[in-house]
Amino acid sequence: GQQLNQSPQSMFIQEGEDVSMNCTSSSIFNTWLWYKQDPGEGPVLLIALYKAGELTSNGRLTAQFGITRKDSFLNISASIPSDVGIYFCAGIAGGTSYGKLTFGQGTILTVHP
Amino acid sequence: KAGVTQTPRYLIKTRGQQVTLSCSPISGHRSVSWYQQTPGQGLQFLFEYFSETQRNKGNFPGRFSGRQFSNSRSEMNVSTLELGDSALYLCASSPGDFSNQPQHFGDGTRLSIL
């Protein structure tokens, strides 16, 4: 099935560093979402973006909805050990796409203390 | 507010058997979606139910089916299990009134096929 192109696949960083990851698509999405998944748990919603060009923050996390509606990025500032996990972008095409999220492949984040 | 609850957390089955997974959404949420998560294919959409009706369906064979009850609880059934069905099955809920409402996930059911 269709997936979003998410990069990088993995990141190894030192505590305190900033992190950036992004997602691109060949088609338009009306909503972009960012989730984090810890081992043995389901994805947890971090940020939701509803409008092209929108920039939204949640604590140390900042995400933007690309103006073409075909991309989004997530930044994490001053990383801490508990930021470790897998980050997923997801898009909702809109219209009649009720309940249907299209996901990126995920970015595995490792933070060294 | 209680989150999305999935039962059981773990299941072991053999090829050819069938299995039923259960999901209780967040109180007040009427939309329930199901996803399959595997290392190779990532997170793939199975189907979505709203007010006991399937509104959307992904690209999975007919062996995968679901239903929703009047209290919005949902079940997913997989018949004639294959080795490739081994995966984490995730349920997510949302209010369901608008297609752009974010979904909230449960912790999944880990299904292993022997």
What do you see in this structure?
The complex is a heterodimer of chains A (113) and B (114). In chain A, 0% of the residues lie in helices and 51% in strands. Chain A has no helices and eleven strands. In chain A, the strands form two sheets. In chain A, strands 2, 4, 5, 9, 10 and 11 form a six-stranded mixed beta sheet that branches. In chain A, strands 1-3-8-7-6 form a five-stranded antiparallel beta sheet, with no helix packed on it. Chain A has strands at residues 5-7, 10-14, 19-24, 31-37, 44-49, 55-58, 61-65, 71-76, 85-92, 102-103, 107-112. With 113 residues, chain A is mainly β. Chain B has 114 residues and is mainly β. Chain B is 0% helix and 53% strand. Chain B has strands at 5-7, 10-13, 19-24, 31-38, 42-50, 53-57, 64-68, 74-78, 87-94, 104-105, 109-113. In chain B, the strands form two sheets. In chain B, strands 2, 4, 5, 6, 9, 10 and 11 form a seven-stranded mixed beta sheet that branches. Chain B is globular. The N and C termini of chain B lie far apart (37 Å). Classes of the chains: A mainly beta (113), B mainly beta (114). The interface between A and B is medium-sized, with 30 and 30 residues.
- General form of chain B: globular
**SSE run of chain B:** EEEEEEEEEEE
Q: Which structural class should the secondary elements of chain A be placed in?
A: mainly beta
**What's the multimeric state?**
heterodimer
What is the helix fraction of residues of chain A, given as a range?
under 10%
How large is the radius of gyration of chain A?
14 Å
What number is the mean pLDDT of chain A? 95
What's the alpha carbon Rg of chain B, rounded to whole Å?
A: 13 Å
What characterizes the major β-sheet of chain B?
Answer: 7 strands, mixed
State the share of residues found in helices of chain B, binned by percent: under 10%
Report on the biggest sheet of chain A.
Answer: 6 strands, mixed
> Got a strand count of chain B?
11
Mean pLDDT level of chain B: 96
- Shape of chain A, please? globular
Report strand % of chain B: over 45%
Q: What is the count of helical runs of chain A? A: 0
User: pLDDT under 50 segments of chain A (min length 5)?
Assistant: none
Number of beta strands of chain A: 11
